[in-house]
Amino acid sequence: MKRFRLASFAIVATLALAGCNSKDTPKEGEVAEGKPIAAIPAPEGQAWSDVASFTPEGGVVEGNPNAPIKLVEYASHTCSHCAEFSENASEALRTKYVDSGRVSYEIRNQIHDPIDLTFAVLARCAGPEAFHALAEQGWGNLKPMFDAVNANSGAMEAAMKAQGPARFDGIAQGAGLYDFFAQRGISRDQAKACLAKTDTATKIAADSDKQSSELDVTGTPWFFINGASVGTQTWQTLEPMIQRAGAR
């Protein structure tokens, strides 16, 4: 059963702003210790953080595609803990680790509610190169987004009852997402066209359900380092694990 179908409008904002549930997570010692890895130069005229692509798992990876350390985050666009991680980690992760060529950073969606799914679709509208920046800015805009949701409660209730493109259109309008993305170069017409392709949303939701079940991802933000699950972490606890893996 799709997680985004379980969340009603009445509880979406409360659950998102309260954080995301998860079970106890592995300890740092479970990350295999690697030898120090030298920096790997990016292609001429580029930084590794400029390099991005969609992955077979439905995520978006940023950085050296052949990086020896592969960091994967399962994240929700409406999760306050993901927003906190992004605020604390984004700049250091990009400049110290991704741009060194040692680490690639992939974000995969774990969908928690219809607003989350709508944002996930819109964040892909401008291609993989824009995704990480849009996700980061979206987490920075989490409170204003939910202020808009609460201010437009009637329209949001109606959107939740709609089906197909009408549902996503109503959510994007009520949550202020059309304006948010327009300010970042994705016009309303472009955003509407993205949301009208409902197969994108269907695939994102299916990938979320399948991978969460198969990989036992029970909360967000949830991390894997070189395929090893290290569970939910803060930047303060995750950075030493990345260093232990060889990014030092």
TrEMBL record:
It comes from Tsuneonella deserti. Residues 57-243 form the Thioredoxin-like fold domain. InterPro entries: Thioredoxin-like_fold (IPR012336), Thioredoxin-like_sf (IPR036249). This is Thioredoxin-like fold domain-containing protein. Keywords: Signal. PROSITE patterns: PROKAR_LIPOPROTEIN. The keyword Magnesium does not apply. Residues 1-18 form the signal peptide. Gene3D superfamilies: 1.10.40.110, Glutaredoxin (3.40.30.10). It comes from the Bacteria. It holds the Pfam family Thioredoxin_4.
